Amino acid sequence: MISQLRGTTVALGPNWAVVDVGGVGFKVSCTPATAAGLRLGTECTLATTLIVREDALTLFGFADTHERAAFELLQLASGVGPKLALAVISVLSPAEVVTAIQNDRVTTLIRVPGIGRKGAEKIIVELRDRVGALAADLDTAAQSGEQISSELWREQVSSGLQGLGWSSKDADAAVEKIAPLVADNPQISLGRLMKAALQTLARA
Question: 4-62 architecture in CATH?
């Protein structure tokens, strides 16, 4: 299994990227936030998982291992395939997925397009006893003090937005609007910040 890619980003789309690793270009499907965090011509590292089907081999890329773990966990629920699992982590952070499952928060899961109340209830019932490992990993990461630099995140989010076509002015304005999220939660992921910034720009 291909569990990680490290190479140069040579092509980007709204929910995919091509990473050149030693002259071989790997196309990965990813969330819009993950794609927005990449920049053409620069090195990147993605956690990955390969989905094998009779008619296709699809590589999925993630901003970190927690996001990948949530993606893989969700597919343990009946009726949840890679496409829907990717939709979930495009809307919810791994921590939000864990909290929704552990605390029966159906309303959180139905924020994801394609998941209705019955589907959300099924996911919660089927994954309640399986979510412990991811929850423990997230707790360990938080306790170890994993957090993004107060200055670095601004540059990364702004660069990611500009890479998607937004002007530097709009990107910087979006960064300022989401700054309170970092103040409230220093452990917040870059992917989550990108999602919030994109939502801010969409509303504008």
Answer: Beta Barrel (2.40)
Q: What is the pLDDT of residues 13-59, one digit of tens each?
A: 988 999 999 999 999 999 888 888 888 999 999 999 999 988 889 99
pLDDT score, position 146: 52
Q: How confident is the model at residue 6 (pLDDT cuts 50, 70, 90)?
A: very high
**Is the pLDDT reported for residue 145 higher than 70?**
no
Per residue, the 3-state secondary structure of the chain, as one string, reads: CCCEEEEEEEEECCCEEEEEECCEEEEEECCHHHHHCCCCCCEEEEEEEEEEECCEEEEEEECCHHHHHHHHHHCCCCCCCHHHHHHHHHHCCHHHHHHHHHCCCHHHHCCCCCCCHHHHHHHHHHHCCCCHHHHHHHHHHHHCCCCCCCCHHHHHHHHHHHHCCCCHHHHHHHHHHHHHHHHHCCCCCHHHHHHHHHHHHHHC
- Of all residues in the chain, the percent with pLDDT exceeding 70 is 93
| CATH annotation of 152-203 | 1.10.8
User: pTM for this structure?
Assistant: 0.74
CATH classification of 66-143, choosing from 1.20.1510.10, 3.90.215.10, 1.10.10.10, 1.10.150.20? 1.10.150.20
pLDDT (0 to 100) of residue 116:
95
